Amino acid sequence: MSELLSHLPAASLIPDLSQAVKSGNVIIGAPPGAGKSTALPLALLDVLPGKILLMQPRRVVVRNLAGYLASLRGEQVGQTVGYRIRGEAKVSRDTRLEIITEGILARLIQQDPELTGISAIVFDEFHERSIHSDFGLALALDTQQALRDDLRLIIMSATLDLEAVKALMPGARVLTTEGRSFPVTVHYTGDVPAGQVPEKVASVVKYVIATHEGDVLVFLPGRGMISQADRLISTFVAKTDLAVHHLYGALSADKQDAAIRPDPDGRRKIILATNIAETSLTIEGIHVVIDSGLENHARFYPVTGMTSLTQQRISQASATQRTGRAGRVSEGHCYRLWSQEGHDRLAAYTPPQILTEDISPLLLDSLAWGCELSELALLTQPEPVQIEVAWQMLRQLGAVSEDNRLTQHGRDIAAMPCHPRLAAMLLAVARLKNPDYQLAAPFIVALAEESIRTGTHILISDAIKHLDSAQRSRLVFQASRFARYVGIDRHALKPETLSSDALAACTALAYPDRVAYRRGNGYKLAVGRGATAALSTPPQWLAVLSGQQLGEDILIRLAEPVDQRTLTSLFPDAFSARDVVRYNPERQAMEARRVTGFGEIDITAEPVSVVDDDSVARAWFTLLTTRPASAWPLGAAAWQWWLRVTLAAQYQLTTSKGEDIDWPRSLDGLLLSLRASLMPLLGKCRKWRDLETLPWLNLLSQALPWPAQQTLTDMLPDSITIPTGRSVPLTYQEHGPVTLSVKMQEMYGLNSPVTLANGRIAVAIELLSPAGRPLQTTSDLPRFWAGSYREIQKEMKGRYPKHFWPDDPATATPTTRTKKNM
Q1: What are the residues whose beta carbons fall under 8 Å from the beta carbon of 507, sequence distance 6 or more?
Q2: Rounded to whole angstroms, how far apart are CA atoms 84 and 682?
Q3: Bridge pairing between strands 26-29 and 81-85
Q4: Quick check: 364 and 114 in contact, CB under 8 A?
């Protein structure tokens, strides 16, 4: 076995790892291609007794890696090497190396805190910072410290800052090795708008097929864009001996295997993949990578309770991982669909999931474990606003009491392998004992939890009816996992017997805040947000299962018509009359009303004359928190301040003494943290224009600790002094360089680049004509003076003869005057 893997760079770590793991934890840093996922887990079998758990972030990697490692031992999967993912397992009594997805570990620890029979847990690809790996490591450290000092924890990472992990595991031995890779030539195509990526991919694929050898791996954000690119590529692939494959998480196992393995007919392959292909998977024969620079990122919206996939730019770390795919077997090429300048603006790392996802399941699991999140050894703690939203949700479900103590109902919810909202629905259906609901509830959970593609159908009943046989089988299989929780046999689950009323009722029980009421051409959700649904005959009421956040509104993806009588029976107190303060968008003002309705949906409303400041303040705060921060009336100065803060966070700026600063991670979270100081001001506002006059910049600035305020002023000022002595404002951009716009004559005599943050950030200088029109933008002023200035000088002498155009601007005197007045 060791001879088969001795060529891998990670194999050189085996002697040190074998020795280190006998006495403590180990942290391993090895770049992509080093073979750490292959060589090291197998080596541990010869060193440690008992079972070893190897955690991987993706199901396709788990299956593929288990098959590969088993084949190296000349065995079938399920013998020495097995795997376990949600709803599927191939293990036996002989299994000693069990590869699992990260979500499995937390449940294993909670079911058996001593992890009986397990000698080590290996956290592979830890740099991806999944919420499950962070939480799993925290629980494992708790178990190790309290119950199992003989348990060994091994962290393996490709691009993570190992020092941060070492702070959690101070006694761990750190081992590092170089990767096995060949040089990769990187080509930048220039920035490509997201809407034009499929066309650009098709043209680059056509070029590289004619120019380079080997298979081609194309990174795209999701299966929608993969399908678009495939259609465009097919116009010329049909005339060639090429095989086109897709590769993403929801694809069937056989299609994933076909994409990964060499073509049986020896054809060149074009693999259109999501970021699932960034790490771990062994894909032989890749010589060229085409990188769109985009990924779909799950983002949780606390106000609507929805998690939507949003398209975003990848980080520099992800770009490095993707590029490395082209250098595994020989020298390769990577075509990046963005510019070199754009690359420098990419974030260094992708934010950990714990900062962008719904943490209510995490909070509930930690309470079931016996502590709060703040007491766990998490590499990154969630933001206070995330924790407050999670507490609020758990209180609404009855999982915790008003003083945030776990209830018995909460323990019952935590015992189920699904989101707390879905678990609470299953328990409610079990109590109701409605046979139709009992049949429908497991299917609603399966649709919400699994990536089952439902096509273009919006109604849940239509989507289920039109599933192909493979998707249908998968839906029934996943639903069968939850049948016992509602008191029925899994064999009773038949999609064709499902009632529309029951599907709607179960959806409403799980997501009452997503119940939608038709208003004009759209809908209003019970949570207060607007929504749209592409239905030819839209019903009056909808129970919404899933949607996508688009600006301030929701695009309904999957829902079912629900009768008002059903809602009244399920939520008998929801339609009672109550006094509320509501925002009138037509008058752009707050109004008091006595209403009946469902949540924020008003069916009837009558004016109420008296309204107190506290009610108005709460109404404004609710309105603002249901809108993205971009829709808040902050003003230009406050927005410039926030862009400076985000840049400081991107570059991890420290104080003048080198002390770290915990820069705010999101504007939404920062604004919500201002509630105490904001509420008295909001109570005095009656119209939207009153909000615009609030001192937003001062409020935001004061939310930062004083050292952070001082660092921001010193390192990223809002203005700088130019050679004429005039103070000129800097313009910060969300996606672009910091810019200084100034007339060219005022910069004479300056022969060095303008930089910020102790030289780490170059300022782009927009040089203007005497009339204030742009002439040139440069981040390298000395190079400009010595180069293209000559051409501009000739033109400007003719157009502005009264102004000073020296032959040597680098040593000339800066001025704001004409030659006559100098």
Answers
A1: 444, 460, 514, 543, 544, 545, 559, 560, 562
A2: 53
A3: unpaired
A4: no
Is residue 619 within 8 Å of 583, Cβ to Cβ? yes
Residue 28 tokens, joined: 């391993």
| pTM of this prediction exceeds 0.90 | no
Q: Exposure pattern of 773-804 as b/e (b: 16+ CB <10 Å)?
A: eebeebbebeebbeeebeebeeebeeeeeebb
Exposed/middle/buried for residue 230 (C-beta within 10 Å: 0-12, 13-18, 19+) = buried
Structure-token pair, residue 733 = 């951009």
Q: Over the range 201-216, which residues count as b (16 or more CB within 10 Å of their CB) and which as e?
A: bbebbbebbeeeebbb
Q: Report the distance separating Cα 624 and Cα 672, nearest Å.
A: 9
Residue 363: strand, helix, or coil:
helix
DSSP state of 491: G
SS3 387: helix
For residues 697 and 638, the answer to whether their CB atoms sit within 8 Å is yes
Angstrom distance (rounded) from CA 522 to CA 519? 5
Mean pLDDT (10-residue bins), the chain, 822 residues: 67 90 90 81 91 89 88 92 88 94 87 93 88 92 92 85 79 82 89 91 93 94 91 84 87 82 89 83 86 87 74 88 84 92 79 88 94 90 84 94 94 94 97 96 93 82 91 91 94 92 97 94 89 92 91 87 95 88 88 89 85 90 79 91 92 88 82 86 94 94 92 95 94 88 94 91 92 91 91 90 90 84 66
Q: How far apart are CA 102 and CA 132, in angstroms?
A: 5
Contact predicate 246/224, CB 8 Å = no
Tokens 């003048």 identify what position? 656
Cα–Cα distance measured from residue 158 to residue 31, given in angstroms and rounded to the nearest whole number: 4
Edge-to-edge strand ranges of the sheet holding 215-219: 184-188, 332-336, 286-291, 215-219, 268-273, 242-247
Long-range contacts, stretch 185-190, CB < 8 angstroms, 24+ apart = 185/331, 185/332, 185/333, 185/334, 186/323, 186/333, 186/334, 186/336, 187/333, 187/334, 187/335, 187/336, 188/336, 188/338, 188/339, 188/340, 188/343, 189/335, 189/336, 189/337, 189/338, 190/338, 190/339
Q: What CA–CA distance (Å, rounded) separates 793 from 806?
A: 8
Contacts with 230 (C-beta within 8 Å, 6 or more apart), sequence order:
244, 246, 272
Question: Tokens 């805190």 belong to which residue?
Answer: 113
φ and ψ at 304, to 5 degrees?
-90, -15
Contact 717, 643 (CB under 8 A): no
DSSP 743: E
Packing angle of the helix pair 469-480, 435-449 (nearest 10 deg): 110
Which residue in 44, 25, 174, 27 sits closest to 97, CA to CA?
A: 44
Q: How far is CA 759 from CA 150, 506, 651, 753, in A?
A: 49, 58, 12, 9
Distance in angstroms (rounded) separating the CA atoms of residues 207 and 178: 33
Whether the CB-CB separation of 752 and 781 falls below 8 Å is answered with yes
Say which DSSP state 351 is in.
Answer: P
How many whole angstroms separate alpha carbon 754 and alpha carbon 779? Answer: 7
The whole-angstrom separation of Cα 476 and Cα 450 is 11
Structure tokens, 225: 């864009």
Q: Report the C-alpha gap between 744 and 767 in whole angstroms.
A: 5
